[in-house]
Specification:
With about 600 residues, the chain is mainly beta. The strands form seven sheets. Strands 1-6-9-12-16-20-23-28-31-34 form a ten-stranded parallel sheet, with no helix packed on it. It has a ten-stranded mixed sheet with strand order 3-2-7-10-13-17-21-24-29-32, with no helix packed on it. Strands 4-5-8-11-15-19-22-27-30-33 form a ten-stranded mixed sheet, with no helix packed on it. α1 (about 5-30) packs antiparallel against α4 and α3 packs antiparallel against α4. Residues about 1-15, about 30-35, about 260-265 and about 470-475 have low confidence and may be disordered.
């Protein structure tokens, strides 16, 4: 590491930076004395993109992203969204109601591709409502409700006529109903939420008989914490809904189905799935009393415990968890952020015993012209990483492609690249979990080892795969293959892959192989104290980052973990001083 601050000149620069900190601190103190604006009454985001009334504390520069700039109180609806394909970011502000029927904190009626995030919804009849626009009308679909705090409402998040929506990462507490599916709602996902201290945690409500069905179907509910709900963790009237990797903790009744609550004994009632098969497993139930002495799909292998109970958790005659977890499920997380990057070098080899066989021309071109291969992280949300790959040729030309992968379920157009997995996986854990969307979802980390990459010894998750079906830009071939994968355990990014394949034709054997290895990255190289943005120099931009987040703590609107230089959970004058003391330093 090379430090640029030296002698009297460096001291003058440091003193100047400290004076700048003093000035910036005084400005920040004055700014914090200014209270954000508040608004009363209903606010509309109109179909044409306008905000009504225009004085409402919501700003947008592109009619796509709408950001709250103050709290909202209303004795009617809070925000009514009439426009599709937008993001409404609450920025941590409160939307407060008066618990008056039938008003909603945020209403999406027959909307498509709308994201609601980072808002606090309190004291409405419906906290967030996704519904249709009348009998036989359009449904709300492909919307995302994420990272909101939904508390003290009658219905926390309410769906009626809503399909293919995602509810994730929300704190849903102290409502009469946490998440409520009313009649026909299909193919929605509810994952990674804290659903606690409600009367009913999740309610799937509808009607089923031998002649008529109108109920929630094929919804996926996984990796939620469902805890301390007074009436029941889940009330279940529906078909083929899937529950997996949830933690059911200390609910008065865990699952209240038509069977367990004494309803009509129709064999079609409340038929759902409560596990993801073996070895992925089911849910954690705090009242499960079974033991874990065996393993395997039938839980009869004498090889020892596998983290799943040897006997099912029975809910009623139609519903059981075949593989109840013995310890609470811990959700998967990404270990990268927007702006992270890595570069790789490739080595290629090709051979054939057939004198007339020639290597594929695209391989010849790559071997002759490739200088490096790059991965740039563009965006991260929930468990999905959007990234760009770069093929950089020796003549300076580049080919860029954009991909997305959900490290939780393996979905996305970049799945087959297998360059990202969840951070912090342990040996025996699968690369991705329910619902499996790719061949690699069932693969398990074999061991965690130490290997040197980019000058640092890194914890590395290793996996060997033999004879797997490659699905990519080329037609499938019948060949024998061996792959060794090495992912960085902390970040989940690929560090190295060694691939070998061979196939036989007319007695001749053709083999090709390549090794891909990381040679440069900002993920663990830039460790310069005070370099908040990771650009290798401590300068005014780092002071600005700390200033923008000054006074914030985790969970607050302006919190930025990168600006917490001292890693003490608060961004204060000591972080500014630390940046100032290292002002002008660089690393290489």
């Amino acid at each position: 590491m090379v430090y640029a601050v030296r002698g009297d000149r460096g001291m003058k620069r440091t003193v100047s930076a400290i004076l700048l900190v003093i000035l910036l601190t005084s400005m920040l103190y004055s700014a914090f004395k200014i209270m954000p604006a508040e608004a009363a009454g209903t606010i509309y985001i109109r179909a044409d993109g306008s905000i009504d009334p225009p004085t409402a504390p919501i700003s947008t520069v592109d009619n796509i992203t709408y950001i709250l700039t103050g709290n909202i109180t209303s004795d009617a609806d809070g925000i009514v969204v009439e426009r599709d394909n937008i993001i409404v970011d609450g920025a941590g502000y409160v939307i407060q109601g008066a618990v008056v029927y039938p008003y909603k904190g945020i209403r999406l009626s027959a909307r498509g591709n709308v994201t609601i995030q980072n808002a606090q919804l309190k004291s409405f009849d419906f906290g967030i409502c996704l519904d249709h626009d009348g009998l036989g009308g359009s449904y709300s679909s492909n919307c995302s409700i994420s990272r909101n705090n939904v508390t003290n409402n009658r219905w926390g998040i309410y769906l009626d006529g809503a399909n293919n929506n995602k509810i994730s990462g929300n704190n849903i507490t102290n409502n009469s109903y946490g998440v409520f599916f009313d009649y026909t709602n299909e193919n929605n996902t509810v994952y990674g939420n804290n659903i606690a201290n409600n009367e009913l945690g999740i309610c799937l409500d509808g009607y089923i008989s031998t002649t008529y069905e109108e109920c929630p179907e094929n919804n996926k509910i996984y990796e939620n914490n469902i805890e301390d709900n007074a009436e029941a963790g889940v009330k279940l009237v529906g078909l083929d809904n899937i529950f997996c990797h949830n933690n059911f903790l200390n609910n008065s009744i865990v699952i209240e189905s038509e069977f367990s609550s004494g309803g009509t004994n129709d064999p079609k009632l409340s038929r759902s799935i409560f596990d993801d098969g073996y070895p992925s497993g089911g849910n954690y139930w705090s009242d499960y009393t079974g033991v874990d002495l065996y393993g395997g799909p039938n839980q009869d292998y004498p090889s020892g415990s596998d983290g799943m109970g040897d006997s099912p958790y029975t809910i009623d005659v139609n519903n059981q968890d075949r593989y109840p977890l013995m310890t609470p499920w811990v959700g998967r997380t990404l270990g990268v952020k927007a702006g992270d990057w890595a570069k790789y070098r490739y080595e290629f080899m090709w051979s054939s015993t057939d004198p007339n066989e020639q290597p594929p021309q695209d391989w010849v071109d790559i071997v002759a012209n490739l200088e490096w291969y790059g991965i740039d992280v563009l965006e991260v949300f929930d468990t999905t990483v959007v990234f760009q790959t770069i093929i950089h040729l020796q003549n300076g030309t580049e080919t860029e492609s954009q991909w997305a992968v959900d490290i939780n379920d393996g979905s996305g157009n970049g799945t087959y690249l297998i360059v990202f997995i969840a951070a912090g996986l342990n040996p025996g854990e699968t690369l991705c979990t329910f619902p499996p969307q790719s061949t690699s979802c069932g693969w398990q980390v074999e061991e965690t080892i130490l290997r040197p990459y980019v000058g640092v010894s890194r914890e590395t998750n290793y996996l060997n795969v033999t004879d797997w079906s490659f699905v990519g830009p080329y037609l499938p071939l019948e060949f024998d293959s061996v792959d060794d994968f090495y992912w960085d355990r902390t970040t989940g990014i690929i560090n190295e892959q060694a691939h070998q394949q061979s196939f036989e034709s007319d007695g001749y054997v053709t083999s090709l192989s390549y090794t891909m290895k990381i040679v440069d990255t900002n993920l663990w190289k830039n460790l310069l104290l005070g370099d908040c943005n990771g650009d290798g120099v401590v300068d005014i931009s780092d002071l600005a980052m700390v200033g923008a987040a000054f006074g914030s703590e985790p969970g607050q609107p302006r919190w930025n973990e990168a600006a917490d230089v001292r890693k003490d959970g608060v961004i204060d004058v000591f972080d500014l001083v630390t940046v100032a003391m290292h002002y002008g330093e660089t690393n290489s």
